[in-house]
Write a structure and sequence with these properties.
alpha/beta; 11% strand; binds (3S,4R)-3-hydroxy-2-oxopiperidin-4-yl beta-D-xylopyranoside
Length: 411
Amino acid sequence: MQLSPRSPLLLSTLLSSFLFLGACGGGGGSSSGNPSSASASSSSQTSSEASSSSDSSSSSSSEALSLHTLADFPIGVAVSAANEPSSIMQDDEAGVAQRAIIEAHFDQLTAGNIMKMSYLHPAQDTYFFDDADALLDYADDNGISLHAHTLVWHSDYQVPDWMKNFEGDATAWLAMYKEHVETIAGHFAGRVPSWDVVNEAFNEDGTYRNSLFNQKLGTAYIETAFASARQADPQADLYYNDFNISNGGDKFQAMINMVDDFIARDIPIDGVGFQMHVFMDWPSIDAIKSSFAAVAERGLKVKITELDIPINNPYSAGYNYPDNYEATFTDELAAAQKKRYCDIVTAYLDAVPADLRGGLTVWGIRDSDSWLISTLFDNNHEDWPLLFDNNFDPKPALYGVADGLTNQPCL
Ligand code: XIL
């Protein structure tokens, strides 16, 4: 099936709907060996091995590879933690396998869910940090950093009920809101290198999303969050994070206008997180590069925060479940996905100067744990958006990332 670009408007509808879903877990894992210092030369070896990496013989090549040693910026992965399905903190098979993968390939984690608003602030007078602290302890023990996600996000399932029902006047709302940001950012100050301060503030047409925070505080809720976060944690890099901003267009321009306004008025912001829930053929590499470059030109960091690349694209003209979709992850599709991962990493290196590279994070480890299976595909069928397969074996995509990081041609 030939995929074609999908409409950002449709993606917006999709994303708005998934944001109301409950937590479904985001991680998975694989076993691989101890990290070894892979170099550019060992990476060219990975290229040739990748062609066979859809079969079981690939796991040995993964043991020679340590993704994060190929980059001088963080290489991250989103994980499920605490008692979520496929938690990396459990001592079951999936937990053990995932920790081996993390320790081999990644030097940064993002919590897929457990550091969102309702998890950390379940009642007005109650903060709950135990699960996040345990994840942070695990990361610290293994020399891994934790990118913190996220202080303010409209998504219904993670806005605490008490906040939705908060009845104070405008002054009380502002005080409550600042306290939320300052208490959480303050708790992790000195222990996390970066925060997604505000997540997904814009609609596809570039207008501000009509979130609870916008309704109660106006669009100033965004700058207020950045100022409060900076006050509570002067060291952490503060990111604005969003999806569908790597293709130019109205939403991208609105983000850029906000960033320019923040810079002009000295509102503290250090970077932009590009979620990069992209497709095999959308956006174009040229569009991705110019979007990254526009942020870097402003002296801000660029971080790829949630990369995944599904094979099926429900917005493409050809997709029509159950009549016409990719039901099998063929070697050809695996090779095309490897190239796509490589092209995106190469675009990042080309467009963003070294001192502005905030890092690259993949949204999950194992394909079957990807959030896209439920939110994008309604659990109708499998897909293969990530770097490791359902048996925790590395996919060609892993070697595509390695090739990109080491300036190899994307094949
Ligand atoms: C997703 C999680 O992966 C799911 O487990 C949860 O059900 C919904 O949220 N953009 C974001 C992430 O910023 O927080 C979202 O994570 C994926 C989209």
